[in-house]
Write a structure and sequence with these properties.
homodimer, about 180 residues, mainly alpha, about 70% helix, DNA-binding
DNA sequence: GCGAAGAAGTTGTCAATGCCAACATCCGAC
DNA sequence: GTCGGATGTTGGCATTGACAACTTCTTCGC
């Protein structure tokens, strides 16, 4: 057993994602994480200042994934601003559905309080897209768009809502319906 | 100093609401609550089985308040089903904005995992309203409606979003824009 | 009145956790 | 080589949730 783990930071994040996936953010503990990886309880501190710092890193991963998906969708959608915007919205909802753990972490109140800039980064992409797209018809255009996005993702990502609403499998048709203006 | 506090359960809930309001759900601790109220650390256990039980009670309060507001709004809106539904939507968003602490508790992941039925109760009111109102135009009518509601409340209740979107004061006009079909 | 039963509160304890400090080991630059 | 920083370990402390045993008060039947 080598003294240096060699890849601890990455494995901490990976294991943390697993734990969050099936126990939620609240079930995450630095010490149990260390146990899972077979290192001492003080080891994680060398890579993450504290629990909040680890969660922030996990959230940053989530944001990066979301950004990546949205950017890819935008590229694929071509040059029409309206089409790009719609594609980004779909990509965001898909991200929420496909990676509920990451999505849940990014949007977790405990995490948002510490790093509110995460969401800001995501929004920046939308704002850009909106800014370059439609002339503002009402004063609340941006807010309305964001609300649609947030609501669609929240409902589509939550198994409880899905069961309640009878939308077990999230089709493109459903997403479009949720996002439809 | 009387041995029996006399009103401990209610005061625990009240103080808990305060703490949640300015420290979030994560900042809530049974022991500090007991200290705040001048009782021993074991006292809360006589009224709430554990921390989750207290949070569930707090969430139940929140759901009750929301239901009450929505019901009142529905009554005031008269008999037209469409108008009643719209009024309930507005009332829900107003609830989220006026009582961010209760709203946040009801929708907190930690709480939702334990008592998913809270949201179900709220939805029941909407479903009723919807069921009695419009003929279904698409297969996802209910889901779309719920997504709008959830998104509007989420955005309107979050100071971070509000600042980002430049919608500091939540007017009726804004709410209608967020909910507009 | 009174005595028992139960509700409400207290005290003590235990394991888990987050965080910190002191120490050990390994690696790379010079 | 050796020295310093990065990485890991160990020990310790305070806080917390949960539990058990005990005390005090209230209530209700008689």
């Amino acid at each position: 057993m080598p003294y240096h783990h060699g890849n601890l930071r990455a494995e901490l994040l990976a294991r943390a994602a697993q734990v969050v996936a099936d126990q939620g953010v609240e079930g995450l503990s630095l010490r149990s994480l260390a146990r899972d990886l077979g290192v001492s309880h003080g080891a994680p501190a060398k890579h993450f200042r504290d629990r909040a710092d680890l969660l922030a890193a996990l959230a940053a991963e989530g944001v990066a994934v979301a950004e990546q998906r949205m950017a890819a969708a935008a590229v694929e959608a071509g040059s029409d601003p309206q089409a790009r915007l719609a594609a980004m919205g779909r990509a965001y909802v898909r991200f929420a559905v496909d990676e509920p753990s990451l999505y849940g972490t990014v949007n977790h109140p405990e995490v948002c309080r510490v790093t509110p800039e995460s969401v800001t980064r995501l929004l920046a992409g939308w704002i850009d897209a909106i800014g370059g797209s439609a002339p503002s018809e009402g004063r609340y255009e941006t807010a309305t768009f964001v609300a649609r996005m947030v609501g669609a993702a929240e409902v589509a990502a939550d198994p409880g809502w899905r069961e309640l609403l009878g939308i077990e499998d999230v089709t493109d048709e459903l997403i479009d319906a949720l996002l439809a203006a």
